[in-house]
Structures are given as structure tokens and as C-alpha cells.
Amino acid sequence: MQKVWRKFAGRHRKAQVLIEKVATFTLSFARAHILCGVALLCFYDDYGMQDRLQIPPRIFREFFKPWWKKIITALREEFPESLFFPHSCGRVGEIIPDLIEVGFDVLYPLQPECHDVAEVVARYQKQMTFWGTISSQNYSSGQERRSGGRNQTQNASGLVAGQCDALSFEYHRP
């Protein structure tokens, strides 16, 4: 993966053109959804792996962060009531300050396998809300997820407790 990113960075102009095209589409796609009534928009870039970022922080900051800043700023000016969040599994702690700086409101998910949840929430809860912390990677049953989630989220503000692996819930027929 590192070789791919070195090549990517080595072709700076081509990389910028590609990212600009994707960013322009992302902005128009987000606008269309907001105009249809969507108030909470998720962007699926997924920068993390279990033990590290998929790309060096320098690459994120040089290539992706400026475009996220432009996208979120434009959307926020036009739709100030909307909320924005990236979906990025894995260990993304190194770029949480960058995600806050560009204007994301929420980070989904905050995986307990990859972060000290209490530490991350305590550090950034005034600037960002975190969604997740209940992992199906560590718990096999719904009951285990519920009790594990309670342990992870006691006394946490700035946190929406939920399953990390899917935006879903268990449905029990009455």
C-alpha cells in the first residue's frame, strides 16, 4: 500500500486532478441529498486500518484535507443546519484534529479495538461527537454487545453509543 501512495504522491498534478473530480462530484452529490431533505450526511472515505492509517497523515493533509475543507465549508454556508460525518473505521486518531478542523461534526465509528474510547472522547468531545464504540468484533451475541457497550460508554458525553460495524439495530418482532 505504501508503494501505491508513493506513486500517487509522485504524480502530484494527476493526483490533484483526480481528487478534484471526486471532490466536485461529492459536493454536488451532497447538495442534492440535502435538497431532498437529508440532514445528516455520511461520507465514506475510510482512512483507517486496525493498527494504523491506510495512508500517511502527510498524504491525507496534502491531498484530501484541503478538499474536505472546501466541501464542508461550502455545504455549511449553504445548509448551516446540516451535519456531516466521515465513516472511517480503524485507527484514525492521528487525523481526528484534521477532521475537526475541516468541519466534520461526527466521527463514525470510534472502534474500541483501535482507540482508547474514554481518552479520545475526553480529549475531543467539545469539538466533535463520536458514534460507535460497540463492536461485534469482540462480542458474539447481542447481549454481549449490549453489556460491553455499557462498559465502554459509562459517563461519556460527546458520544452516540452504537454498533461500530453497521448502522443497524436488532429488531425483535412483538
Largest sheet: 3 strands, parallel
The strand order across the widest sheet is: 3-4-5
Mean pLDDT over the residues: 82
Report the principal-axis shape: globular
Radius of gyration: 17 Å
| First-last Cα distance | 48 Å
Total number of helices: 6
Task: Describe, in plain words, how this protein is organized in 3D.
Strands 3-4-5 form a three-stranded parallel β-sheet. A two-stranded parallel ribbon has the order 1-2. The longest helix has 24 residues, at 12-35. Helices cover 47% and strands 15% of the residues. It starts with a helix and ends in an 11-residue tail after the last strand. It has six helices and five strands; from the N terminus they run ααβαβαβαβαβ. It is α/β, with parallel strands linked by helices and 174 residues long.
Précis, in short:
The chain has 174 residues and is of the alpha/beta class.
Write a concise keyword list for the protein shown above.
single chain; 174 residues; alpha/beta; 3-stranded parallel β-sheet; two-stranded parallel ribbon; 5 strands; 15% strand; disordered C terminus
SSE topology sketch:
Layout: H1 2-10, H2 12-35, E1 40-44, H3 57-78, E2 83-87, H4 96-102, E3 106-110, H5 117-124, E4 129-134, H6 142-153, E5 159-163
Parallel strand pairs: 1-2, 3-4, 4-5
